[in-house]
Specification:
Number of helices: 10
Strand content: under 5%
Largest sheet: 2 strands, antiparallel
Number of strands: 4
Order of helices and strands: HHHHHEEHHHHHEE
Radius of gyration: 19 Å
Strand order of the largest sheet: 1-2
Shape: globular
Length: about 260
């Protein structure tokens, strides 16, 4: 179990750290999208928005890895969570989004959002649109998550602590898969196979998924796009996007629009 009835959350702490270590490559493998955009704003990166929170969890001694302590840590970052999503804490229609729109939603596991029942479940949100479109890939992705949970639980039983890997800073709101995985599809696929092996999975079974998903990047990031616009004669963005919401930008340059 990720959290025992007595509140022992060593397995959950391991899961959080392991997931954040693997998240950029998981994004590359799963390629989550929503609304036709190239970034899933409904599955934001916890390490991207709250790096200090993740570091606090990773640094917890074994005897402090409890449900209560993890809840306390998340609560300390609540104001920033509302700000990141542009939420009004006084508006009850907006508060359910806090801590939910994450690549790993812990609001159902920990009492960190009163709008959600802490039912003891972790919701992985990077493959939530795949089931009907490609059931085979969806099952493979679910298998990766099950293996990840199993590894976190096994490490806790054996008294092991997952070590947080340093993650370089990237532009706010951009996809970690773009900045933190190999640009070469061949190298990225090799890294993905190593990840699968580390979870006790057979990479050969996942090869069709890796070949389909890990492809050369075709879309510029938002920062790259803005750089291209800035380089145009009289180019400027006339509808700036917000880090947490936009699916498009409009550009005016040299009389064209």
């Amino acid at each position: 179990r990720l959290v025992t009835p007595e509140g022992d959350a060593r397995a959950l702490a391991n899961l959080i750290v392991l997931h954040e270590n693997m998240e950029p490559l998981l994004r590359r493998m799963f390629r989550p999208v929503r609304g036709g955009g190239h970034a899933n704003r409904f599955a934001r990166s916890l390490s991207g928005d709250h790096p200090e929170l993740v570091k606090e969890i990773a640094a917890l001694p074994q005897d402090q890895r409890t449900r209560a302590k993890l809840t306390e840590i998340f609560k300390r970052y609540e104001a920033r969570e509302f700000a990141v999503h542009g939420l009004d804490p006084s508006d009850p229609t907006q508060t359910p989004k806090a801590w939910k729109y994450r690549s790993m939603n812990l609001a159902k596991m920990l009492p960190i959002n009163d709008a959600h029942t802490a039912s003891g479940a972790v919701e992985f949100r990077m493959f939530d649109l795949e089931m009907l479109e490609n059931p085979t890939n969806h099952r493979l992705e679910a298998e990766v998550y099950r293996a990840l949970v199993k590894k976190a639980e096994q490490m806790a039983r054996e008294g092991q602590v997952a070590q947080l890997k340093p993650r370089p800073a990237i532009p706010v709101g951009e996809d970690p898969a773009v900045h933190l995985t190999p640009d070469s599809p061949r190298e990225a696929q090799a890294a993905a196979r190593e990840l699968l092996e580390s979870l006790g999975l057979d990479p050969q079974r996942f090869q069709p998924l890796l070949q389909e998903r890990i492809q050369p990047r075709r879309l510029p990031t938002e920062s790259e796009f803005r750089g291209l616009v800035d380089a145009l004669p009289r180019g400027r963005v006339v509808k700036p996007g917000q880090p947490d919401a936009p699916l498009h930008l409009r550009v005016r340059a040299g009389g064209l629009r």
